[in-house]
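Reopening this ticket.

The earlier resolution said the output was attached, but the attachment link was broken on my side. Pasting everything inline this time so it's all in one place.
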Amino acid sequence: MVLALVFLHPLYLAALTLGTFLAVWSAGGLKTWGIYLRFAFPLALLLVAVNLLANRSGETVIWLSPPLPVAGRLAFTLEALCYGAAMAVRLVCVTGVFCLYSSSVHPDRLLGFFSGLAWRSALTTALAARLYPAMVSSLYSIREALQTRGVNFDGGSAVERAKNYSFVLRALLFCSLEDSLQLAEAMQARAFGSGRRSSYRREEMRPRDWLVLAGCALSGTAALAGFFTGWGSFSYYPRLDSISLGGPEALQLALVSAGVVLPAAAGWGWNKWEFLRSKI
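Inline output:
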């Protein structure tokens, strides 16, 4: 994500997006990314359209509109179109990074990790995250139980429906109080807050973790070297730079791409080869 926000070169953005796609694919999150893209694609198209309409900095005019009453003649430039397309690719890449995170890291593991640092905040977050789905499940169960006893939630006047739903709210309040008491008893039975917190699952660094960190370090080092030397820079205004790369720049792009693709390769090896899985 950091590299996608730093680089503006189209080839770098394409390589980062491809690496993100491969990582999401190896993590089994393509279906989730499809849901993300339902919201990202319209926003990406909006970015391209707004930049094409509002930006007049480019020199290469690709279309000149007829005279308009207030705005005059609108000039659509190639530079504005390419810059908007680059921002759209960047948005898709960042969206894929967040999808990769949600597909790879379970929220309970994340809360368990932070509970060792700030256990009160982690406990509050876990209880708040559990509250809504638990209440929705109880609500459906209470509604079904009342319907089997002859309560009609869809018919009758508005006053009758409100009275019927008041039964649901009353039962939901009782269920919530009972759940809170059971949670308190469970915490007390486990001696919560009486001393140093123990952990059921310990996060240990394994060879696969070091492999992924090595890929991140490779990409970060190559990107840092390119940032200070000016490699990978690209100017869209007032005229597009050449998209071709020299020898050192191509090598830097290859190193950045290799570091980004390395986690996806490790994920595929983990899923396909039992021998590699036993080693990492």
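Reporter confirms the inline version is readable. The chain is about 70% helix and 0% strand. Residues 117-189 form one domain.
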